[in-house]
Design brief:
Number of helices: 21
Helix content: 55-70%
Order of helices and strands: HHHHHHHHHHHHHHHHHEEHHHH
Strand order of the largest sheet: 1-2
Shape: globular
Number of strands: 2
Distance between the termini: 10 Å
Structural class: mainly alpha
Length: 501
C-alpha cells in the first residue's frame, strides 16, 4: 500500500525550498553590483525587480511552511529536484527582461542550460548584451557547477543529516570532509582559488592577443567560470572562435580538464597525495575512453581529408574532443561544420565522448567515468569467474581515492544510471527526429543536452520547435541530477494522487 504524504511533509519541502530560493536571490546582488559598476540603468531595474520577487517568494515559503523538522531522504530528494526548477524560473526573469530572448521559455532554457552546466544557448546578439546580464549567465553556470544545494549548504544550513541528504540528492554522494557543510565550503574554496589563478592566466593571454585590459578581464572571468564548471557559455556569439588565440585555447583545455576532475581528487592533490592522479580509476578510464574516441574521430577526419596538419588537428579535433569529454561545450569551429565537414563517423566519436563525460562529484555531467570503470571491472570479474574452478573465490578491487571491494550494489547502481542515461538520450533523439531532423543530428544534439555538454550541430536555435526546447530542458535537468532525486519527486507526486492515509 502506498501512503499519501502528510501536510508536514509538504511543509518541510516548502520550508527548505524557501531557503534555497532566498540563496538565489542573494546571488542576484552580484550582477546588480556589476550593473552599478558599468552604469547600466535598465539592467539595474531588472535585477532590483528580480531580487525583490525572488526574496519575497522565498520568505513567503519559509513563513507559510515554517517547521523545525529535519529533512528525511524523500524530502531532501524532492527539495533537490525542485530547487533546480525554481532556480530556472526565477533566474530567467532578469534574462527575459534583458530583451535578448524571444520568449520567457527561451530565457528558461538559457537559465536551465546555465545551471545544468550545459551551454546550449538561445540568446540573441550576445555581443551587445549588457555586461551584468552576460555575467549573470556565467554566474549561474558557476553556481550550477558547484551545485545549487552546495550554495545553500555553504551559507544557509547547519551540518545536519538532512543537509547530507540534500547534498546526495544533487548527484553528489562523496563527503570529502567529515561534515557535509565543510565539504560544501571546501568545494567553494577550491573553485575560488582556481578562479583567481585561471582568470589571471586567461587575462594575460587575452591581452597578449590584443584585447583591452578591461575587456580581457571581464571575458577571462566569464570564460573561466563557464570552463571550470564545464558549462560552455561565452560572452560572444562565436564561442572561442571570437578570440583566435592559440595560447588562450591551451589554457582553456587545462581549465576544462580541471573542472572535470572529482573534487575528492582535488582534495587528495591539495593535501599532498599526488600519486592518486595516476592510480585513480576515473583518470585511467578518462585516458582509455579519450584515446578510443580520438581514434574514431581521427579515422573519420582522415577519411574526409580534414585537418591534415598536426596543429590544425590539435586546435580543432583535439580541442572539440576535450570539450565534449569534459562536458564543457566550447567550440573552435562553427556548428554546421560538424555536419558538413566531420560527417557521420567523426560525429559518432564525439557523441561517444559526450555520452561518457567526466568524473563523479565534479562539475561535469553524463554517465561518468567511475561508472564506466565499475561496469568494466564487473565484466572482467564475471569473465574470470567463468574461467576459474567453481570453488575459487574471486574478489575485485576498485581504486577511487582508496581501495574498495567491488560489490553488487556498486554495479547495480552504475548499471541503473547508465540505462537511465541511454533512455534519456533515446527520448531526445526520437523527439528531434519527429521535429524533422536526421538521426545523426538529432542524436548528437540529444546527447549534448542530456549529458550537459553544449556542443551543437545547429539544431539549437530560437526558432526550433517549443516541444524540442521543453524536451532539452527536461533532459538537462534530469541529466544534471542523475535521476534519483527526480524519481523520488515523481514517486511523491504519484503517492499524493494515488496514496492512502
Amino acid at each position: 500500500m502506498i501512503l499519501r504524504p502528510e501536510l508536514e511533509d509538504y511543509k518541510i519541502i516548502g520550508y527548505y525550498l524557501g531557503k534555497v530560493t532566498i540563496g538565489i536571490g542573494l546571488c542576484m546582488l552580484i550582477p546588480l553590483g556589476i550593473a552599478k559598476l558599468y552604469a547600466e540603468a535598465a539592467p539595474m531595474v531588472d535585477y532590483l525587480l528580480s531580487i525583490s520577487f525572488t526574496m519575497l517568494a522565498g520568505c513567503v515559503l519559509m513563513m507559510l511552511c515554517h517547521t523545525k523538522c529535519d529533512l528525511e531522504t524523500r524530502h531532501a530528494m524532492a527539495v533537490s529536484a525542485l530547487s533546480w526548477l525554481v532556480a530556472m524560473f526565477v533566474s530567467a526573469v532578469p534574462l527575459f527582461l534583458s530583451g535578448h530572448f524571444t520568449s520567457y521559455l527561451d530565457a528558461c532554457f538559457e537559465s536551465m542550460s546555465g545551471y545544468a552546466t550545459t551551454g546550449l544557448s538561445l540568446a540573441r546578439d550576445l555581443d551587445h548584451m549588457a555586461r551584468s546580464h552576460n555575467f549573470w549567465r556565467h554566474l549561474i553556470m558557476f553556481i550550477g557547477g558547484q551545485g545549487i544545494v552546495v550554495i545553500a549548504l555553504t551559507f544557509l544550513f547547519k551540518g545536519t543529516a538532512g543537509a547530507f541528504r540534500m547534498y546526495a540528492g544533487e548527484a553528489r554522494d562523496e563527503k570529502i570532509l567529515p561534515n557535509v557543510v565543510q565539504t560544501a565550503r571546501f568545494i567553494w574554496i577550491v573553485s575560488i582559488v582556481y578562479l583567481v589563478i585561471g582568470s589571471a592566466a586567461l587575462c594575460a593571454s587575452a591581452m597578449m592577443g590584443g584585447m583591452k585590459p578591461s575587456d580581457a578581464l571581464f571575458d577571462s572571468v566569464c570564460i573561466f567560470m563557464a570552463g571550470f564548471d564545464t558549462g560552455g557559455f561565452t560572452p560572444h556569439s562565436q564561442s572561442l572562435l571570437f578570440y583566435h588565440n592559440f595560447i588562450f585555447e591551451l589554457i582553456v583545455i587545462v581549465v576544462m580538464f580541471m573542472g572535470s576532475i572529482n573534487f575528492a581528487l582535488h582534495y587528495a592533490v591539495w593535501t599532498g597525495n599526488r600519486k592518486e592522479m595516476f592510480r585513480n580509476i576515473e583518470i585511467v578510464a578518462l585516458f582509455i575512453t579519450m584515446s578510443a574516441s580520438l581514434s574514431i574521430i581521427a579515422w573519420g577526419l582522415i577519411d574526409n581529408n580534414i585537418y591534415s596538419g598536426l596543429m590544425p588537428f590539435f586546435g580543432k579535433a583535439f580541442f572539440q574532443l576535450v570539450s565534449a569529454h569534459t562536458g564543457t561545450g566550447y567550440s573552435t569551429i562553427y556548428p554546421r561544420q560538424f555536419v558538413n565537414e566531420w560527417r557521420a563517423l567523426s560525429m559518432v566519436g564525439l557523441t561517444l565522448a559526450m555520452a561518457i563525460g567526466g568524473s563523479v562529484c565534479s562539475t561535469t555531467g553524463a554517465i561518468k567515468l567511475l561508472r564506466i570503470g565499475v561496469i568494466y571491472k564487473a565484466l572482467r570479474q564475471d569473465i574470470k569467474k567463468m574461467l576459474l574452478p567453481d570453488t575459487a573465490v574471486l574478489m575485485q578491487k576498485v581504486h577511487h581515492i582508496k581501495d574498495a571491494m567491488l560489490e553488487d550494489r556498486h554495479v547495480r547502481s552504475a548499471a541503473l544510471i547508465l540505462l537511465s542515461y541511454l533512455v534519456l538520450y533515446f527520448i531526445g533523439t526520437v523527439v528531434g527526429m519527429l521535429c524533422g531532423f536526421s538521426l545523426s543530428d538529432a542524436s548528437f544534439e540529444s546527447v549534448s543536452a542530456a549529458a550537459n555538454v553544449g556542443l551543437s550541430c545547429g539544431i539549437t536555435s530560437p526558432v526550433m520547435p517549443s516541444i524540442l526546447k521543453i524536451t532539452y530542458i527536461v533532459q538537462m535537468w534530469a541529466g544534471r541530477l542523475e535521476f534519483m532525486a527526480i524519481f523520488v519527486l515523481i514517486g511523491m507526486i504519484f503517492s499524493t494522487v494515488k496514496g492512502r492515509r
